């Protein structure tokens, strides 16, 4: 983090924050829309950072240092049609998180030829009242223009008289269709992804070996409580109630995941196991799923592993003298209570 000392800069008491922010954004917008890589990079300090999530790279990418940012822009600016930069002045502010550290934070929206996007940039002062420069930039894809999420005014407006139950059963069975995406694991991340894909109209099936959604939390040790505070753990479309505790007990989050899958009408096969998955000559996957003693072969275009770290499969080491130990030998995955 650049300090005012390392920047050899000071901040005037009467600084016009909005003016400084607008001047930087005006230059950035002009250079960016021209495809002027050198112009854009001239607005960044040498040790700067750019994090892009799908907006400009179709990937999750981080670029550290001006050389990496220049290479990224050289590769992408000519093929990304960017327009409609709009600063959000209500979020523009001078921030001083610690003594000797300060920046102006700017929020903005923009568009590409494919989607709607947003950005956040922090700019820092320069020596001798020179124009401010960026220290870190974040760009994020918010929505696809031609395939928006089916939410709000785009939700289904048709009434459903007596057909919902049979439609849900047919959707879950996948009898005469293939999923586009198969997700292994119906935990937090699997459900999160499936919900997003559903609102984009992408047919998705989740496979989970547990009998009930949420068992990945329900079956762990009794005292388990999430160490992430509640505002880090919201699911798409259905946030936790405002009464939700800051730190969620494991069994409470387990029940919530079960409720969430039902409310979002996600297609989950529980008590099911993926026996194998191989890429075929057509570029899709051959995935063998065992359920109720029967095997079904799916051919999804995309296969996602959402099994968590280690998939709760404990590996017990072999140690000299284990066979002579008279106490209990227990892997942490088997621990339930003290």
TrEMBL record:
Keywords: FAD, Flavoprotein, Oxidoreductase. It holds the Pfam family NAD_binding_8. Transmembrane segments: none annotated. Gene3D superfamilies: FAD/NAD(P)-binding domain. GO terms for molecular function: flavin adenine dinucleotide binding; N,N-dimethylaniline monooxygenase activity; NADP binding. InterPro entries: Auxin_biosynth/cation_transpt, FAD/NAD-bd_sf, Flavin_mOase-like. This is Monooxygenase. It comes from Roridomyces roridus.
């Amino acid at each position: 983090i650049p300090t005012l000392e390392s920047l050899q800069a000071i901040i005037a008491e009467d600084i016009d924050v909005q003016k400084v922010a607008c001047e930087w954004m005006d230059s950035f917008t002009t250079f960016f829309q021209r495809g002027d890589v050198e112009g854009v990079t001239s607005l960044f300090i040498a040790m700067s950072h750019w994090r892009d999530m799908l907006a400009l790279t179709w990937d999750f990418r981080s670029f550290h240092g001006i050389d990496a940012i220049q290479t990224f822009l050289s590769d992408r600016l000519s093929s990304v049609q960017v327009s409609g930069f709009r600063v959000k002045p209500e979020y523009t502010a001078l921030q001083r998180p610690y003594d000797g550290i300060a920046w102006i934070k700017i929020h903005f929206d923009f568009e590409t030829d494919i989607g709607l996007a947003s950005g956040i940039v922090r700019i820092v002062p320069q020596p001798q009242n020179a124009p401010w420069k960026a220290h870190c930039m974040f760009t994020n894809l918010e929505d696809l223009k031609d395939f928006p999420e089916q939410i709000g005014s785009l939700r289904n407006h048709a009434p459903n008289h007596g057909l919902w139950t049979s439609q849900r059963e047919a959707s879950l069975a996948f009898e005469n269709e293939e999923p586009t995406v198969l997700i292994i694991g119906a935990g937090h991340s699997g459900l999160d992804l499936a919900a997003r894909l559903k609102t984009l109209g992408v047919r998705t099936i989740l496979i989970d070996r547990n009998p009930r959604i949420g068992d990945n939390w329900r079956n762990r040790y009794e005292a388990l409580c999430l160490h992430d505070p509640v505002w880090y753990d919201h699911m798409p479309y259905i946030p936790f109630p405002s009464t939700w505790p800051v730190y969620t007990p494991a069994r409470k989050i387990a029940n919530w995941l079960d409720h969430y899958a039902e409310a979002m009408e996600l297609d989950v096969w529980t008590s099911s196991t993926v026996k194998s998955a191989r890429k075929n000559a057509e570029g899709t996957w051959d995935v063998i799923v065992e359920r109720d003693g029967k095997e079904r072969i799916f051919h999804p275009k995309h296969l996602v592993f959402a099994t968590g770290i280690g998939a709760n499969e404990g590996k017990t080491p072999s140690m000299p003298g284990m066979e002579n130990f008279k106490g209990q030998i227990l892997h942490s995955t088997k621990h339930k209570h003290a």
